[in-house]
Amino acid sequence: MKRWAFLFRPSWLALLVVVLAFAYLCFTVLAPWQLGKNTKTSRENAQIANSASADPVPVTTLLPQQDSSAPDEQWRRVTATGRYLPDHQVVARLRVVDGEPAFEVLVPFAVDGGPTVLVDRGYVRPEGGSRVPDIPAPPTGPVTITARLRDSEGAVPGKEPFREDGVQQVYSINTLQIAELTGVPLTGSYLQLIEDQPGGLGVIGLPHLDAGPFLSYGIQWIAFGIIAPIGLAYFVRAEILQRRREKAAKEAANAEPDKPLTTEAKLADRYGKRR
User: Fold this and answer.
1) Do residues 91 and 125 touch, judged by C-beta distance below 8 A?
2) Coiled-coil intervals in this record (predicted)?
């Protein structure tokens, strides 16, 4: 037990705590975070790829009720017949489309025989740096649109909706927040118009099918979580071996008796002193 006593010194205890805490975070936070992002990205890529080949379906088959959402059907093409509600239009600010700033224009759409859904008409570019430009009004009569299902975004903490340039503005496409803001009930998922649709503006294209580096990052964090304790064990073993060598050398020095002088040494010592 004595040989392990050095591990209870403050410096070693601090090192032990840091290494174990790091390994714990690698396995419980950092690796799951990156692997979760990889799973989400892979799932979204599969949904995008499937949406390109699947035929559009009526929106009411996926969003039959006012409180419906379809997270497993994101990017699926749907059709909807109904009317825009332009009096409740809002814009999402601080968006980036094709590498440039943009506003996305959002308006409720009452589906015939179905729920009211939020429709992303597309984007417009800001004027004068950050001002919302004049936005063409959507059609007033019944129309049929084709769009892609999108998941509602999370609200941005600390960023409340506001009105400026005569337009209600929000920081995220959060259907619950926009429903409370406009007073119009909305489904959990919203629709993003594809090209050549009634009421459409600048078309927002599909994201690139890129899985990203998340899988490799997740594996790296797992590797770091394994290597850290192994490295600690290596240094503990090296310290123990070094202490053993020092102890053995000390014991050997203390146990070795004075060697008697040989005859030659005695004569050399005797005659050397006479000279």
Assistant:
1) no
2) none
**Count of other CB atoms within 10 angstroms of residue 233:** 11
Computed from CA positions of residues 123, 124, 130, 132, in that sequence, does the dihedral angle turn out positive or negative?
A: negative
What whole-number distance in Å separates Cα of residue 141 and Cα of residue 128? Answer: 33
Residues in the chain: 275
* Cα-Cα-Cα-Cα dihedral sign, residues 66, 70, 71, 75: negative
Contact 62, 190 (CB under 8 A): no
Sign of dihedral through CA atoms 162, 166, 168, 169?
Answer: negative
What value does the CA radius of gyration of the chain take, rounded to a whole number of Å? 36
Given the structure tokens 């990203």, which residue do they identify? 212
Q: What is the pLDDT along the chain (275 residues), one digit of tens a residue?
A: 566 777 778 888 888 899 889 999 988 888 888 888 777 777 776 766 676 667 899 999 999 999 888 888 888 899 999 999 999 999 999 899 988 999 999 999 999 999 999 999 999 999 887 899 999 999 999 999 999 999 999 888 888 999 987 899 999 999 999 999 999 999 999 999 999 999 999 999 877 666 667 778 888 888 988 998 898 888 888 888 887 887 788 878 877 655 555 565 555 555 555 44
